[in-house]
Amino acid sequence: MDNRLGSLIPQPVSVRPRPGALILTSAPDIQPAGNGGRAATDSATAAVHQLLSRLPWPGGVTAGGQRCTVSIVAELGPEAYRLVVEPDRITIEAGDTAGASYAAQTIRQLLPDDAWRAAPLTGTSDWQLPCAEIEDRPALSWRGAHIDVARHFATKRELLALIDALAALKLNRLHLHLTDDQGWRIESRLHPRLHEVGSHRARTRISLNDEEPKVYEDIQHGGYYTLTDLAEIAAYAGQRGMALVPEIDLPGHSTALLAALPGLGAGPVPDGGYQVTRTGASSRTCWRRCRSRWPSCATCSASCSARPGPASSTSAATSACSAVGATTTGSRRPGATANW
Questions:
Q1: Which of 14, 92, 104, 339 could be cross-linked to 135 through a Cys-Cys bond (beta carbons 3.0 to 4.6 Å apart)?
Q2: Which pLDDT tens digit goes with each residue over 145-177?
Q3: pTM strictly above 0.85
Q4: Contact call for residues 301 and 234 (beta carbons, < 8 A)
């Protein structure tokens, strides 16, 4: 078996090598085929073209490349695909658009290392794709990564690069932790102080929680995403078969929110006012703050991994969250997010 066929990530359900190789000078000529629905087939074809046309092919993207057909076979199931590479063509059958996209990612993994470069190199030889029949379908429907941009902000460009890297490994979820004590990272048109004030902190503690004396990095840290930014990130991920999962962590973990909107705090305002937290996680502090206002808050109990209170108390938390324009559904439960 060709080394590339034996090192695909993730390992496909079935890999059957065939003799020979397909020689590719330029991008393949990608065309819809089959008897599936026209809209679904066109979407799958576009997904394959969108990925393969961006590769740094030795001869560029020109007309007359080797034929690559894309068809929808619903019986394969969601995200599944069958890829056949022959000496004169490529055939992709997929259960849906995501499956076709994953087939294209498999093609990329089978190409030479130069397929991962940002630009084509001069003087490179034609690319060879080993002939094989490959079938794959997901063992897990949720295959994701989580990035905590609340504590350590990542720019939009960095997130887009991360999405490309995750899609190459056929992951299909990106969980963004957008709010916490250490920063509020999402634009609020209703309460602009949330992103104007809550998205920045004066310094960051870099020592361990129990380490004394505490050591700080005296560099301002901040940033947030506009709603348009998040729409762009979600669309970019969707083109690569990935869903964006935003997390707005309320009513616990709310120091950054209180720094912007202190009127939502319980009890007297601390000396010097609320400040965006400069340390790591502070669930215990959040829990005490939340319990002082909502003694039996089931929603916050789920968020802070503490003992839940009566379900009837959830309305108090929901009312408080509504004051800042959010509807809390319990951010720690898979698939549950807040509408903002």
A1: 14
A2: 999 999 999 999 999 999 999 999 999 999 999
A3: no
A4: no
